[in-house]
Amino acid sequence: MTTRFSDSTLFRLIPPAPMQHLVDDALCLIFSYCVTAESSANLPNPAITRAPWKLTLVCSRWRQIALLIKRLWASFEVDSCNPWLLQVWLDRSGNHPLEFVWNRPCQSICHIEHSTDHAHSVCSRAKLLCEEYTRWRSVTVMVQTSCLTQHLTNMSYDHTGVPYLESLQIEGNNSLMSRDVLFDIRYATLLKSLCLPFKTESVLMGDSVFLRLTSLISTGFMFNIGMPTDEWLSLLTRCPNVARSHIMLSDLSPTPQMCNVLELPIQDLVVGFHGAGVIQTFMDKLCLPALANLRLHQQEMGTSFTQPASYLKCFIRRSNCSLRSVRLASLDFSERSLVQCLHLMPQLEVLHLTAMDVSELFLESMSHVDADNCLSVCPRLRKIKIADVTEALQDVNVNDMIVSRWNAKGRNLRMVELESCGLEPDPIPAGIRACQLDGLEYLVWGLV
Question: Which InterPro entries does the record cross-reference, listed alphabetically (predicted)?
């Protein structure tokens, strides 16, 4: 029977013991540090670190144990790995689920893919990986090559599914996939994280419901291209336990099929969109009682701040959520509407406003205290960042707002950052300077 040791016992045993006589558990503990499974960005690169490979060169005993631990060989980066080395890694991983990243930058592929040898190498690696797709557990793909597309097409004909798949990230623009190339995830019952390009055509989902999926993200943010609003809502109906969703919205599909109001346990919601009508349609269909972090970014700001922001106020009331962090950018509703929304966020701790209608009314509202010296708006606010305002802020109004919040009951304010708000970094108003000496972090960047 194998003896199990605590970490402190292993620490005492390992230093005086020759390598050949280390107990199996100690060796396994050492070897486990050669693989980082929590983050795909930290997977070992066989062509650079070759950590598992190096363990096999210490002595015959170490080689024997390293070859027995299949998990050592099941996590790797593909980019710098030639086909022969990749085949070795795959063979030694046995039947263990695979975690890999293939994210060579697009421009590098385009620059060197004219080389026949390189193209053959890429196709060979793609073929090897696609042959093992039933073992995929965590996959990040950013490569854009015709041969990868070809092998993925062949893979899509086999609908046995990916039984181990927990994380799938398809990154880069949509030239990676065509309408006929699909990742079949209909039977990926273990799927926890899904990162899609800005069209769902690259993923075959069927009518599956993904009960374990907690993270649903669109890569459209990188290219300012959205997915139809009704398609996102349809996806969310099949992810009843999603907790994190980053979405880029476009207009509705030509023949939209709208759902009923969805109540979901989303805690972190990021939405980019191109018009007030799009975001209103989306938010009117959501009820998120667990929401803590909200970010809304309008890509094309309207000509004036005339929107009443009724959709945001209705959403907050409907969800009855305790927002802790809110980031709003380029929303085209009025300053008064912004203040009304903030009145509905008593638990708010972080507020970022970019390219919003922020001036004297906002600063006065954020300064107001009642007879008991308690703040009326967002009393728990710890950090305020304001950037790219439509008109320059006045030193006296900023000073009054900061001093009032600093001296209010509870004193939660810790940091104020003003970027491109028309303020000079020096001299700092006397009231703000006194708050700084008492612990406030105050930053001013740019003038315009």
Answer: LRR_dom_sf (IPR032675)
pTM: 0.81
371 by Cβ neighbours in 10 Å (0-12 / 13-18 / 19+) ranks as exposed
Burial 320-343 (b: 16+ CB within 10 A, else e): ebebbbbbbbbbbbbbebbbbbbe
**Nearest C-alpha neighbor of 162 from the set 139, 128, 196, 146:** 139
> If DSSP codes are grouped into helix, strand and coil, which group holds residue 156?
helix
Q: Kindly tell me if the per-residue pLDDT of 433 is higher than 90.
A: yes
pLDDT in tens, 279-315: 888 899 999 999 999 999 987 655 444 456 888 999 9
pLDDT tens for 372-391 read: 888 889 999 999 999 998 78
State CA 30 to chain mean position distance: 31
Are 212 and 189 in contact by the 8 Å Cβ rule? The answer is: yes
Tell me how many helices (H) and strands (E) the chain has: 15, 19
Q: What is d(CA 301, CA 333) in angstroms, rounded to the nearest whole number?
A: 10
Which residues on adjacent β-strands are paired with residue 25?
Answer: none
